[in-house]
Amino acid sequence: MSDSHDFDFLHGNWQVRHRKLATRLAGANDWSEFDGTSSTQPILGGQGNVEDNFIDDPVGAYHAAALRAFEADTGLWRIWWLDLRSPSEVGVPVVGGFEGGSGTFLADDHWNGAPIKVRFVWLKQAGVGPRWEQSFSPDGGRSWELNWSMQFS
Question: Is this model's pTM higher than 0.85 or not?
């Protein structure tokens, strides 16, 4: 069962190794790897947190933020994404929670005008530290394509 301390493992400053698929939902294998930094701190009296990222993507470096809030009545987390490539757009929140050492968060969204499902997976300990993965599904969640991972150390 999720609680407001689920993301406490992420508090602090991190080096991040990104692995990102350039062409999504096309069967591509054009991965790039690059570095970044991340800093997460609690907000909302411990019922949420904000993650500030510098992403040194070879296509163009940028800053981005994740905002997370825990809803005690439902036991669910909501996660929003905002980055400076499109600062007027806050992403659709993914919603979910943790079981054991991993958390799964889902949303309905669009990619290139088509409806998709988005899945975030958080692994509290994956190698040297936490790991985040993003996958898209064009078929209602029957199949998933991993398109971005972040390994924190």
Answer: yes
